[in-house]
Amino acid sequence: MLLTLILTMVSCTEERTKIKVYAWTGGPGEATDSVLRAKFEDLKAKGIDGLMYNGGQDPKTYKRVGALVKEAGMEFHTWIPTMVQGKNPKLPKELYAFNRNGESAYDKPAYVDYYKFLCPNKEGTYNFLAEMYGNVAAVEEVDGIHLDYIRFPDVILAEGLWDKYGLVMDREFPDYDYCYCDDCTSDFKELTGIDIKEAEDPSQVQEWKQFRYDLITTIVGRISEVVHGKGKQLNAAVFPGPSIAKKLVRQEWNKWALDAVYPMNYNDFYLKGPEWVGEITKEEVEAVNTTKPVYSGLFICPNPENKTKENDPENHGLLPSELEEAIRGSMESGAAGICLFTPERMKPEHWEAFERAIYKDYTIKESN
Ligand SMILES: [Zn+2]
Q1: What global pTM score does this model have?
Q2: Ligand 1 centroid to residue 179 C-alpha, Å
Q3: What are phi and psi of 126, to 5 degrees?
Q4: C-alpha distance across the termini of the chain, in Å
Q5: Which residues neighbour ligand 1 (ion) by CB within 5 Å?
């Protein structure tokens, strides 16, 4: 009798096996505390362990929202874009990147109006980011800073987007190739002796690629000192690979000073099926040599019944029927967990598939 009672108590207090799940979300807009509290409690109940929360750059917003997220029992990471910065009195025009045609991303951004990328090779850029991230990291409720757009503009666009922008990006074109500001070109010349402005085809100069990977790697390292100095974690949303990340946006993220990495394994952008998520996760886990957790970012289809009629890949993504395969593939390839883009895009059928997939131990291959 006593033994039965003890066993019952043990099984009641034991937590159900579950994979770690994060989600990208944001706000708060005009939402009241009680509305936010209900939303966060709902996400926690569904199995979300932490939020990457996009709420601007004001530390006060993160203090308020962070308190509610922590109250609901979740981790709180602030999701704030890095190199993409809209017009701001603290950011003079000279800090923005220049393409190979000599055009500034400030007044002639590539692809879309918000693509106003800073040059990572300027002290003014670092000083702005260090102050902004430092102030947010100082907020008690913040567990970590989540970098996004920590890269150059897409010199090659993901193939799923070619139709949308009417482009065939089988090589690097000058309009989308950054940064050719005087600091970047002269520092590169000093380092290597190569005048990149005289190169017949800069895309064939390996040192020039590496120089720009290193500029991003260096600024991540400097930001990590600021954030770690406040006792907080640093992580980032990155392109997949890093083979794809290097080729498309010059992120050599396997070398970055991060505590965790969140590759956006958005298969539809690469015209791939859900099985590809596991394949690319394998490369990602091997790239960091299991020194840090990889959380596989999953892109959810917001309107599954319309997916085949949608031309814009922003409206594509994983169907409920594909979600379990993407989660299993990620976990069996060594991911530490997953991250949903976004919980708001999830339909009831997605949540059902999600629940079937997250309460499993993927370290042991199932025998049935
Ligand atoms: Zn530059």
Answers
A1: 0.94
A2: 5
A3: -60, -45
A4: 35
A5: 119, 121, 179, 181, 184
